[in-house]
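Ticket #4471: structure output looks truncated?

Reporter: J.K.
Steps to reproduce: submitted the chain below (233 residues) through the standard prediction queue, then opened the result file.
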Amino acid sequence: MTPPCIALLARSAESAESFSTEVIAGGKLYVDAINRAGGIPLLVPPTHDVDVIKTTLLRCDGVLVMGGGDVDPSLYGEEDQGECYAINTFNDKFEIAFLLAAIALDKPILAICRGAQVLNVALGGTLIQDLDNAKDHKGHKHEVDVTANTRLATALSGTTSNGMSWHHQAIKSVAPDLECVGRAPDGTIEAVEHRTARWVLGVQWHPEKTAKDDQQQQSIFDQLIYQAGDGAK
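Returned output as attached by the reporter:
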């Protein structure tokens, strides 16, 4: 069986060590998790060219959207309240276009942290720009209660996750095509799934940060690769 190819949506940056030009980058921990699961990551540079997006999707079997900076509030109908950081509207619009095209083609999607937020915004939801208790969600693990009989519960083989959390924003209103399938003990939305697509999952925590040593977190990537491969078709 040919290993599934996963489109890993890259970000642009002005510089990086040993490069003298602008760079296109993706997180190594995401690459490692895809590789461990048996997939082949393909770094996809940001573009607004619809034809390039569609052609890329036709050559890939699944999509992974990484964590990162905040989504431009104007894209969900709000003004910046002064708590947002690292906004890149070009990247936001690229990821939104890519996600919508991937959903239309029924490609399996895993969207992590910022990725889950972009997924929600792409489908018409909104975000909390700064959690009142953001310190409780930055730099440590906390439990997430997962709804039984969901795609996420299947991936985790259970209804509890204890992954690494690192965010100060979260989903406020869930997009109509999504449903909440996981919450933190304080009620923060931590996971969403698409209501009708075959396998579209967004998680607010960072499974890639602990997946090397935590099989339950690695299993989320394993399930993405399974869904993208021949076994789920």
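Triage note (M.O.): checked the attachment and the full token line is present. DSSP finds six helices and 15 strands in the chain.
Status: closed, working as intended.
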